[in-house]
Design goal:
It is built from nine helices and 17 strands. The chain is α+β, with helices and mostly antiparallel strands. It starts with 36 loop residues before the first helix and ends in an 18-residue tail after the last helix.
């Protein structure tokens, strides 16, 4: 079969110095109608796939673990420089990208994890995702109650939110039977839309809000919450955070002040606006997404799983650090990853 045609290319928008309470001009400030999927989907060629598979085989032959793998241990002579372009576009351009065509069917879980991790090593450095120190995460329905556990362990729809890393990366091993679309919207565009209509509500969202930690509390600290601004500007760079279930759950923590009427109105407008400017990505097996947590928000629709355990929706997840963008001090603290309790396998090959 001939190679697929890869039409991916970086955007050509410019950035201006950002200032709070003024319109933000940023390459990540797009509307869905302005996007061309051929330009944000990077389709792997046969030769690039061969490079990936050769690197996986090299890792296996050397007996390396996932933690041993950096870009040097996973050489991609041709694809590597293109992945650097993808990283730059995610962090400094439109804010997200999708790499399509990784062959995962018929390969072992370890081989697929090595491929995902190795490709990610050319994008950034893995960070811990929970108190267990997991560097490789799993988005899979474990039958949990969203009110009690983190949303990625359930099949429930999730609010638009951000993760505690520069880049969120997901690799689709198995798509859902139905639903489970990956949703992305620009927090830059969301800010600008709200600023045009209700600048007073934007100002409310520049304050620091309480977010529940849900058990992932750093050693030496006791507060079950953290505080972050939803909209902030640092050294001329904008950053937007999600209004997610973490905030709603924090409202139930004793001592956390209740929302004011203006804050409630700002949150409503934020939540009503985000879906209107979002795109939906229907994951295919072998897709790898990269999303900048400082300029993008992500969510997912609820989904129906297959009955067979081996066919259930299953995404691998990495939180990647690039240190390419200045952010608010509280956000920077979060980007170090979730503090670890005890010693467990940091790269489990299935959801635990």
């Amino acid at each position: 079969m001939p190679d697929v045609k890869n039409l991916w290319k970086p955007g050509n928008r410019h950035r201006e110095l950002a200032r709070l309470m003024e319109p933000i001009v940023d390459p990540a400030g797009w509307y869905p109608a302005e996007l061309n999927a051929d330009e944000w989907i990077y389709r792997l060629s046969d030769s690039e796939i061969a490079e990936i598979l050769a690197a996986v085989q090299s890792v296996e032959s050397a007996g390396l673990t996932l933690k041993d793998i950096g870009a040097a241990e996973f050489p991609l002579p041709t694809l590597g420089p293109r992945l650097a372009e993808v990283r730059n576009e995610v962090m400094e351009g439109r804010g997200f990208a999708l790499v399509r065509g990784l062959p995962v069917a018929g390969r072992s879980r370890f081989q697929n994890a090595v491929a995902f991790w190795g490709i990610g090593a050319h994008i950034g450095q893995a960070r811990s995702q929970n108190k267990h120190g997991h560097l490789l995460g799993h988005v899979k329905n474990l039958g949990g109650d969203y009110a009690k556990v983190r949303g990625y362990m359930t099949q429930a729809a999730m609010d638009f939110h951000c993760d505690s890393a520069d880049i969120l990366s997901l690799c689709c091993l198995s798509p859902a039977k139905s639903g489970g679309e990956h949703r992305i919207c620009s927090s830059v565009t969301l800010y600008n839309e709200m600023l045009k209509a209700r600048p007073d509500l934007v100002e409310e969202l520049t304050a620091r809000f309480y977010l529940a930690r849900k058990g992932d509390i750093p050693p030496g600290e006791t507060e079950p919450w953290e505080r972050l601004p939803i909209f902030s500007v640092t050294d001329g760079y904008f950053a937007g955070r999600g209004i997610s279930a973490h905030m709603a759950k924090a409202q139930k923590i004793p001592g956390v002040p209740k929302y004011t009427e203006l804050q409630e109105e700002a949150i409503r407008m934020y939540k009503e606006t985000a879906p209107k400017i979002a795109i939906d990505i229907d994951f295919e097996q072998g897709d790898i997404s990269y999303v900048c947590n400082h300029t993008m928000l992500h969510s997912r629709t609820d989904f129906e799983d297959y009955d067979e355990p081996e066919r259930k929706r299953h995404l691998l997840r990495l939180w990647l650090s690039t240190r390419m963008r200045p952010v608010h001090s509280e956000i920077a603290r979060m980007l170090r990853g979730v503090p670890i309790e005890g010693e467990e396998d940091p790269t489990p090959l299935d959801a635990v």
